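It is worth pausing here to work through a concrete case rather than discussing structure prediction in the abstract. The textbook approach is simple: state the sequence, then state the predicted structure, then interpret. We follow exactly that order.
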Amino acid sequence: MRELSGDADAATLAHYRNMAFAIAREELGPSADTERVLCWLEASIKALLPESEAPRATATALFSPGDGPLSKLIGLLGAARSTVDICVFTITDDRIAGAIHACHERGVAVRIITDDDKSLDLGSDVERLRRSGIPIRTDRSEHHMHHKFALFDRAMLVTGSYNWTRAATSSNHENIIVTDEPRLAKPFATLFERLWDELGR
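Step two, the predicted structure:
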């Protein structure tokens, strides 16, 4: 049998690691606690392995209706250690808002960019989060700030059609992509900083 090259072997190991986490998620079922622990474990493995042995970038697609996107978001918020940058059209799901607030309360630097019109909607959690001390900036425009992405510890990116609402979980056909691929996370981080600066003027 032909031996695998070093690169191919590393790729194979990364593939099996990703499969192991996918199986664990499936067996344990969707829950915020499960996702928080698995996110922490994945980050710990990356931190402990030498760079040459570290797993390659990962990517996951999740869809609703269903709790997959919601559980993933709550898990990532629970696992964040230093920063969370959120740029979303609207936040009306109290479960997500509660996880954002808990993240802020334990000392993670949370920032939110959202749409000015949607922040005033009945049921919006934006003003409540602002009153808790989380810095929030809105677009102050007749046009919509329609992005839906978030960055966790400036490394893990979540983006997709998924609005942070109960309907997105229970009724709507939505999606998120979750990835730590630097070639994707970095442009979103750059965009967030640009929008944050522009909206602070």
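Step three, interpretation. The chain is about 45% helix and 20% strand. Residues 57-199 form a domain with the Endonuclease; Chain A fold (CATH 3.30.870.10).
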